[in-house]
Automatic annotation (TrEMBL), chains A, B:
Region forming the signal peptide: none
Protein species of origin: Sulfitobacter guttiformis
Gene3D superfamilies: 1.20.1260.10
GO cellular component, one term: cytosol
NCBIfam families in the record: PA_CoA_Oxy3
GO biological process, one term: phenylacetate catabolic process
Top-rank lineage group of the source organism: Bacteria
Name assigned to this protein: Ring-1,2-phenylacetyl-CoA epoxidase subunit PaaC
Amino acid sequence: MGNDALFQTLLRLGDNTLILGHRVSEWCGKAPVLEEDIALANTALDLIGQTQMWLGYAAEVEGANRSADDLAMLRDVWDFRNILMVERPNLDFGHTMMRQFLFDAYHHALLGALARSTDPRIAEIAAKAVKEATYHLDRSAETVIALGDGTPVSHDKMQTALNLLWPYTGEMFESDDTDAALAAQGVIPDPASLREAWTATVQTTMAEATLDIPEDSFAHKGGRTGKQHTEHLGHLLTQMQWLQRAYPDARW
Amino acid sequence: MGNDALFQTLLRLGDNTLILGHRVSEWCGKAPVLEEDIALANTALDLIGQTQMWLGYAAEVEGANRSADDLAMLRDVWDFRNILMVERPNLDFGHTMMRQFLFDAYHHALLGALARSTDPRIAEIAAKAVKEATYHLDRSAETVIALGDGTPVSHDKMQTALNLLWPYTGEMFESDDTDAALAAQGVIPDPASLREAWTATVQTTMAEATLDIPEDSFAHKGGRTGKQHTEHLGHLLTQMQWLQRAYPDARW
Amino acid sequence: DPDERAFQERINAGGKIEPKDWMPDGYRKNLIRQIGQHAHSEIVGQLPEGNWITRAPTLERKAILLAKVQDEAGHGLYLYCAAETLGITRDEMFEALHEGRMKYSSIFNYPTLTWADMGAVGWLVDGAAIMNQVPLQRTSYGPYARAMVRICKEESFHQRQGFDIMMKMCNGTDAQKKMAQDALNRMWFPSLMMFGPSDENSVHSEQSMAWKIKMNSNDELRQKFVDQTAPQAEYLGLTIPDETLKWNDKKGGYDFAEPDWNEFFDVLKGNGPCNQERLQTRKTAWEDGAWVRDGMLAHAAKKRAMKVAAE
Amino acid sequence: DPDERAFQERINAGGKIEPKDWMPDGYRKNLIRQIGQHAHSEIVGQLPEGNWITRAPTLERKAILLAKVQDEAGHGLYLYCAAETLGITRDEMFEALHEGRMKYSSIFNYPTLTWADMGAVGWLVDGAAIMNQVPLQRTSYGPYARAMVRICKEESFHQRQGFDIMMKMCNGTDAQKKMAQDALNRMWFPSLMMFGPSDENSVHSEQSMAWKIKMNSNDELRQKFVDQTAPQAEYLGLTIPDETLKWNDKKGGYDFAEPDWNEFFDVLKGNGPCNQERLQTRKTAWEDGAWVRDGMLAHAAKKRAMKVAAE
């Protein structure tokens, strides 16, 4: 295992930020308020920046002469390790912000723990990223609260978004042998250990937002193992990767 | 000129059917009525079949060891020669059917003339394709009439579609040196000569559909010369070409 | 009940029931459920394959796929017509689908993720469907049996096309072989689920068999499917993702692992990978298309009125 | 009018006009038109570049492009704020944009078709914009001048990034060089149009110059742009699509062909390649976002009410 476990873990971290960053960037120029346009671009920018660090380190660990860009632009769906939630399409602004909040609450807890990783590179990247994640979480929580508590229409849209996304949250706390091995070495936290902090954040926020947390605990999975992504990821890759695929010998 | 003019002309014919066929195929499983689902798939199928013939002949004429599939899957936007109208997104069903009608009325007249081409291959392909185009035209005209004449809502939607598409119709009758050279040899009709028949079909149909033909004669162009496509074509290509681009050494 | 006895005797004698014939309420209801579900499966079944039409790798593959999806819509049409002879309208069936009162085959709640899935769907999913459908050509309800005859002819063609895609993939590059194996890994157990749980656990089975609207037991068909498919997988050089699969000389068939029936019931409950999206796609199509259907009806009514006025 | 005389004298002396100062109606109206149009251009200007964010070839290029588009939205914000000091709200300006009563720069009605366009937009479009904007840092209206100072700093950074993309393309593969030349071919004349027709034909010019809300003539700026850009094109190894372009020693600048002003007026009238889509995108964003703005306002009102109640 060893290096491969670390490589898989770094892909999981970097693919989450890559794919979510891509989704958020799709809003460019189309947000409901100018300030949101700026904030969404800023979030996407942070996430892409984190991707460069995670996938850059992943490429080093792999040692197969691939770059972060190669990993982003030249893998097919089955080699992606992001959770399913981040590849979901944006749908409306409410769905986008609810997805962002549910991810931020997890990401914030995860990065906080990773900042204490026994792997110094991971600790360093996480320490930088957790500051951004703190800001993202403040912002997405605030938006979820405002829209949940806003008008009856905005409340319904946010409740629908929460219901739709709920079955995609469980995958964040799933674990497998790779996680167990690295958690034992103190490289990463046990994913299950993040659930408590996440649940607390979600409960507080949803209470303020006057939204009901669904009771069903069914969880979609298959993203972080790569076993079965959604159909959306393949379509996202056609856009994201086209240029690199079409001009394989070019440098940009 | 010679072969290159013929090559360009065949690309114009084949790219129109390729791109429109692609757009129509996007409806798969999502049409308003089951019978329309079947009819749209059938139209797309005919158009892709015609594409195989036109681009197959184009590849032969070029003599550069490229196949029809290479031409479809491995060119970038600037090398496409379809008119702008066919690359427009589907928008709603009304827009899709109005685009189809405006194209069918032109395509029918064009293929009728091409069936008398001095180039026997062109004549042969056109003779086969014109039968399909006749059926397409009957069907799209009927739909345009039904929806134009239907309810106030459907009437408005069809009028909006006609207004939106109108500036994209003029390009069908544009011509350049390539056209002039081949028209002089009787290989193709002078594009301008098709306008009369097209206008007659459009006027009759719109009268029955109770729709007003816009008076503005402004025409967008740049597709059939390849000088300036719309932004939509590039996005269409990311989907259409991804697999071939991603796996250049595979055979399917 | 003499009606009921005569009805059953006619079926036992191999006769066909036609729309205007007397039939028990349960027979009618069961058939509507079964034919309607089958029709919905054809329609929803367009979506996983439709997902790759715009990404088909060659013009020929695109044409073949388009033709296939068009056939499926056609099958839907035959089946809705067959169901309509039982006194339900197509719109009522759509409504029941959209409200979750009618189902479609759970297999279409799985995603299609690579081009190899277009092969695997044809090979495995159509393959399993044919196993179910061939005997239904002899079903007791005439319109249903006749629809099945037409459908089976086309389905077996589709299955061969699917197998042909798999052949190309398995004789292709390493990446293509990997795609093919990955598709088989994901689709094997869902395909086995297509026959339904063991009949012991099935509510409708016994009566349906007597009425000849179900011709074989689920386990019987599943065994037949595995026996047919295992050698094909071997021929393709693919490994079925079941370590327990092996030939059993004594029973003259393969031993194999049961699918995870918890997953089956999860998917049935709405928790499959694509349930929400498949149904939403259909509902959106239906709602977005309302103005079109209204417009067409209004135009047809005007035309009729004008014709009447002219007479 | 003594007010008007004092106002003009203050401008002549290089003083700044501030929001609460007296100003002629025409000055206010012209500024609202000009600043509003500039703000709209930043917002609509996000779209042609946004078109390539999801297709950027590397992570770094994607990050740079995101940062740039974010800057543009920020510029829009500064400018809307500057315009608001003149007694119009941002929502009123949006409404005027959506109804076609206010314009945005016509250059954004041209499509971005290849990655090289991301270079050409930065190099040519931002380059031309800077030519216009640098002198406006000295404009007579204080809030506008200060907004311009911040904007110019970032714009010149954007222009260098655009030129950097062009360098990469021009030193790249044959296909990349072809992309770069194609982008220049399509964008050259539209860039020249960005300075507007000759001032002889311009309605607002003379008064605007006196008020110092326009600092240079259109032709003057266009000449300066060509003189700056022609050597850069040569350095890149690209050919400007103008056979008449050549150095004129006598005038100490380049001679060059005028753009096709008919095309300019067509685009202005709404017939540019992307007018309909750019405006529709913005209108759709605004309409789809209405429930979000309403929700946010309602929440803010509730919070204020609770705060008052608590006090």
